Amino acid sequence: MTKMTVRARAALLPLALVLAAHSAGAAAPTPTPAPAGDTVRITLLHLNDVYQFQPTSQNRGGLSRVATLRKQALKESPNVLTLMAGDTISPSVESSAEVAGEALKGRQMIDAWNALGVDYAVVGNHEFDFGDDVLRARIQQSRFPWLGANVMSVKSGQVFDGMKAWDVREVGGVKVGIFGVVLPETQNSSKPGKDTRITPYCEAAKRSVDEVRAAGAQFVVALTHLAVEQDRELAKCVRVDVIIGGHDHDRVEETVAGTPIFKLDEDAVDLGRLTLDLDAKTGAVKKLAWKVLPITAKVPDDAAFNEQMKAYAPLLATLAERIGRSPVALDARSAQNRLGETNLGSFLADTFREATGADVALVNGGAVRADRVLPAGKMTRRELYSLMPYRNELVVLEVTGTTLRAALENGVSLSSVDGKPPGRFPQVSGMRFTYDLRKPPGDRITKVEVRGRTLDDAAVYRLATLSFVASGNDGYTMLKEQPQLPASKDLPSPWDALTGAFSTGKPAPKAKPQGRIALVGAPPGGLRAPPSMK
């Protein structure tokens, strides 16, 4: 949902966006009156949640186009900072791919940000998806600082190795302080290491603001990767001049406790441009204007950016390869796979159960990331990776009926009429279950059948699932210590299993859900999806 509680203001430095796609370069910047001698004009360009450097399937976004607009802004004024408000290393098709036998794991995105010329980035929750070691490697690869004031090392008591809590940079004679914080849920929703702790963001923010002020900062920017409710809390618990955020995948423009908050949607479909007229002596804000610039085919590519990224051309060609076909459209919308049974969720679970020879299968709905309906017909490697971009393994666990029931209880424990659809929601195969939303979490499962027979709490079942779930993530702690069959080491990867299904047609996805999951206690029309999902 777009917030508009700050009054829209006319842009102080409009960018010329009416550009011919075939133009050899950007149009000349529109002349604008210079501010008075006691005023410094600073421009903050910002993006968040950018998972690919190419344009989207709808031909929006593309960091090469953003590079064009950034260079144009710099021609207008050198007082420009380009900010990235978290989530870029994962999840994405390219990050899941391999080059020369090595998984990219976000390497291509750092190369893209280096080519663009970003000034600062805050870590998002998905920066930890590949673990601490990969994140350290990506930080070392970056030619810009990563901020994470509330990302701490238990051993050293300092911020995560290679990160900064904050920084101060002089821009146009004004000392600009900037710090970054990430949402605390990262501790459990991603894969930070045992030595890494995500601490309360308000405490980290207060400490950072005190330190940047002591270092001479006159204007303070909070670069955040928080839910919007947390950004609002941050605005109340510490005084900063502006909050530039990410994570929600929604455009936000509002003021809380006198602090403006700005956020954009994902994948650089738009570029945020915040123009500030500051008092040259004190850094106080005299005038502020925020404008959202659509990134479309009207904005030409930047040749220098493309030259630096040409090493990835073979990868892009590989991703376009055909791996098979689907006879029906597949519902890969994120919210729907977290709300209830989908034909894709059932197909995934069926494929993994058959590939492993298990009795039942469970896939967490949050593993599905394409967030669109894939049409029937040809399936490419890119579409395969887009369905499930996370690197996972298939495992088979031996679980009792009691444990299986507990896993299902966990899967529906966060489901609600008006809450955000939970990533732990279970898509299943080999079983059916009913849950009652009117009952308290932990006591919602009212009926479970395995292959047509009532679940036997004392029986032992072979459960196929993803390594993410088997490791106890998304609340599936009851599976963490369950015996894993030795044969799990020889199982195909989830991608290989799906490639086999798409190429052979076995198992075949169904056009509609098969009634494996029944919900009691829902309002008329069932549970509804929010406007967007991250």
Automatic annotation (TrEMBL):
<protein>
    <submittedName>
        <fullName>Bifunctional metallophosphatase/5'-nucleotidase</fullName>
    </submittedName>
</protein>
<feature type="domain" description="Calcineurin-like phosphoesterase">
    <location>
        <begin position="43"/>
        <end position="250"/>
    </location>
</feature>
<feature type="signal peptide">
    <location>
        <begin position="1"/>
        <end position="26"/>
    </location>
</feature>
<dbReference type="InterPro" id="IPR029052">
    <property type="entry name" value="Metallo-depent_PP-like"/>
</dbReference>
<dbReference type="InterPro" id="IPR006179">
    <property type="entry name" value="5_nucleotidase/apyrase"/>
</dbReference>
<keyword id="KW-0378">Hydrolase</keyword>
<dbReference type="Pfam" id="PF02872">
    <property type="entry name" value="5_nucleotid_C"/>
</dbReference>
<comment type="similarity">
    <text>Belongs to the 5'-nucleotidase family.</text>
</comment>
<dbReference type="Pfam" id="PF00149">
    <property type="entry name" value="Metallophos"/>
</dbReference>
<dbReference type="InterPro" id="IPR004843">
    <property type="entry name" value="Calcineurin-like_PHP"/>
</dbReference>
<feature type="domain" description="5'-Nucleotidase C-terminal">
    <location>
        <begin position="323"/>
        <end position="481"/>
    </location>
</feature>
<keyword id="KW-0732">Signal</keyword>
<keyword id="KW-0547">Nucleotide-binding</keyword>
<dbReference type="InterPro" id="IPR036907">
    <property type="entry name" value="5'-Nucleotdase_C_sf"/>
</dbReference>
<dbReference type="InterPro" id="IPR008334">
    <property type="entry name" value="5'-Nucleotdase_C"/>
</dbReference>
<feature type="region of interest" description="Disordered">
    <location>
        <begin position="485"/>
        <end position="534"/>
    </location>
</feature>
